[in-house]
Design a protein that fits this description.
The chain is mainly beta. The protein has a domain of 114 residues. Helices cover 12% and strands 38% of the residues. The chain has 2 helices and 7 strands. It has a 5-stranded mixed beta sheet, with helices on one face. Strands 1-7 form a two-stranded antiparallel sheet. Strand 4 and strand 5 form a beta hairpin. It starts with a strand and ends with a helix.
Length: 168
Amino acid sequence: MKIKISNLKDGIHNFSFEEPVGDIGLEKPFIGNILVDVELNKLHNQVVLDAKLTMNANFDCDRCNTNFNSTLNNNYKMVYLIGTEPEDSESINLTYLSVDSDKIELNNDVRDFALLTIPMKKLCKENCKGLCAKCGKDLNDGDCGCNQDKVDDRWLPLMELKNKLNNN
């Protein structure tokens, strides 16, 4: 994904890209195409890019191990300054372009921000009940009938302490 900036007039320009996830270096869990909507504001010495990413991914639920598809979204802003980069520049969302640059390459930034959309906890649904610790039945399909009241003997001293504190 490239945007040719050398022939753009100053002002706001909109671009839309749709590419297979493999073309920008994304692998599993991403599937299908990635949609990138870009609003580019070109000024005299800088270009401000505002991108919206939409992609699909295939996960296994962390609670019930069910396979599910999810649509992921992310937005990012990038500022491109035209000129030479100072030595002490450490901003993540600021990139310097040489005066003779004629295009902006989006693939690396799109790939990085797409990877940031992968959730830490992947759930098939917000209220997923998971699997029974005793029999392994998916509790989203109904109760398994296992007796959940029995407490591991190792926890009894703590439960006694808790009961004493609650009674005082």
